[in-house]
Amino acid sequence: MRFVQTFELFPFLDTCFSLLAAFVLGALIGAERQYRQRTAGLRTTVLVAVGAAAFVDLAMRLAGAEGAIRVIAYVVSGIGFLGAGVIMKEGMNVRGLNTAATLWCSAAVGACTGADMAAEAALVTLFVIAGNTLLRPLVNAINRIPLNERALEATYEVVVTTRPAALAETRDVLIEQLEAAQYPVSDVTTIERSEEAVDIVARLISTAVDRKELDLVVEKLERLPAVAHATWESSTSD
């Protein structure tokens, strides 16, 4: 049997330690994700860490450090496809980016353990957990600070939900209402929500916006028979 010829006790024990360390550290990271009921929870995080550790350890056994480096490069890029699966776009909002980044870091933890760098893997785990827990109050505090839109370039978008049959008519009315309020439109896109609803997103040309005036425009749009919902959103960049 080929197994009898290739089996070596001490390298096998080394592999066991690497996979066990990846399992434990991945579980620590995943527990926080599971507690917050994220898309990728405990099991997914553990499997990512253990899988990365197994691939890197296999490469170390077969081709040494050079082989491990090549495998790590593929792990770094390949885990991106898995992370993309937990990213969801809901209208104007994107969810799951933090969970995808956590999976990416879990793969880094697994790669470290597979390369027999358990101490470094534990350090990465500590930083990942700290990033997902200790930074949360700081993020919430920053989000509560009112934005100074005079100092930042703001982008405004008006979103109207209507029936597919009334799409063209509603879009024309939306543009007319905004231009009548002296808010020219730079771009108009549509997003299909379901078979019975579609979003029309009108992006305004960068200009000073009076929130009360924009509220009045949205109120007029919501009175239209074909409009189920209308709102406006703003985002800023340096």
Offer a concise description of the structure.
The chain has two domains: 2-142, no CATH class; 153-237, ACT domain (Alpha-Beta Plaits, 2-Layer Sandwich), CATH 3.30.70.260.
Which class best fits the helix and strand makeup? Answer: alpha+beta
Low-confidence regions? none
Rg estimate, integer Å? 25 Å
> Largest beta sheet, briefly?
4 strands, antiparallel
Shape: elongated
Please, what is the average pLDDT? 83
- Given the structure, what is the number of helices? 8
What's the end-to-end separation, in Å?
Answer: 65 Å
Tell me the total number of β-strands: 6
**Domain module tally:** 2
The proportion of residues forming helix, as a percent range, comes to 55-70%
The H-and-E topology, N to C, reads as HHHEEHHHEHEEHE
Give the strand order, joined by hyphens, for the main sheet.
Answer: 4-5-3-6
Strand content: 15-25%
Keywords:
238 residues; Alpha-Beta Plaits; 2 domains; two-stranded antiparallel ribbon
